[in-house]
Design goal:
- The chain is mostly helical.
- The chain is built from 3 helices and 2 strands.
- Strand 1 and strand 2 form a beta hairpin.
- The longest helix has 27 residues.
- The radius of gyration is 16 Å and the shape is flat.
- The protein starts with a helix and ends with a helix.
Length: 97
């Protein structure tokens, strides 16, 4: 990894950690389905960033089953944040009606 990649990874991990901490505090204050899905989105996004960094450092490897050539773990880390965000938005919209 170059110095620029290391700096960007550190910034992503630092800000992602702060976002995860704030999301957990929000979940402690409000317990609605929308907030829980929003917290899950933040945590899944942070886990995706950690996984990408582990892959780039060679600490983790893409082994196991694949779907159309894409490893299932990578597919899960890419799809779950969007699914949780979509659910959170649906719950927020449904709550306003």
């Amino acid at each position: 990894m170059s110095d620029a990649e290391i700096l960007l990874s550190a910034i992503r991990l630092g800000l992602g950690g702060l976002c995860a901490f704030a999301a957990i505090l929000l979940c402690a204050k409000q317990r609605s389905a929308a907030v829980v899905c929003l917290v899950a989105f933040v945590l899944a996004s942070y886990a995706r960033e950690v996984y990408k960094i582990l892959l780039s450092l060679g600490i983790a490897e893409n082994v196991g089953a694949a779907l159309f050539g894409v490893p299932l773990l990578t597919l899960a880390f890419e799809a779950l944040p969007s699914i949780f965000l979509l659910l959170a938005l649906i719950f927020f919209i449904a709550k306003k009606r």
